[in-house]
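Lecture notes, unit on protein representations.

Consider one protein chain, 209 amino acids long.
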Amino acid sequence: MLELLSIMRRLRGPGGCPWDQEQTHDSLRPYLLEEAAEAVDAVTAGDRAELAAELGDVLLQVAFHSVIAEEEGAFTYADVERAIVDKLVRRHPHVFADVNVRDSGEVVSNWQAIKVAERGGRPRRPADSVPRGLGALAREAQTQHLARHRSDRAALEHSVSSAPDSAEGVAQVLEAAVAWARAHGVDAELALREHTQRRLDALAPQDAE
């Protein structure tokens, strides 16, 4: 990591790369999402060599943001690493302290309780707990989980037949489709990603327009 940080500092410094020098936290947002998505694709494909390469691209984004923040005097990579190390230790008292747990379900319950304690007992607004950068289907699934929303195929069919031919109507159908998927333990975001990839793989090669 030290070598990667040194390279990023050189790219950002005098005599470095004009493109890298122009980047900001805001301008790098789409690249962070893209690199994370490509790492997920590598996991799905089962290609471990590709996964190593894609995780390197994700790590590059961590280094890039850390160097920019270092220049601003906001934080450093050491701060980033220290924060996650402290969090992992704090949220695993069954490993690093004397708390006993029966199973993974109890681990998750403890994790959630510790998160609440970290906020001083203040409840977290639902709008703050669902990342805006998630895919739309994944974000809807998390929202339904928070709202304890359930649905079935009949509700989906009703939504399809009754929804208006508008953006809001499309949104209503997608909401129902996500609820139907959740009722059957299906991750709608991943299911559609994999379905789309199969369709892309089946397309005949064609010249770029």
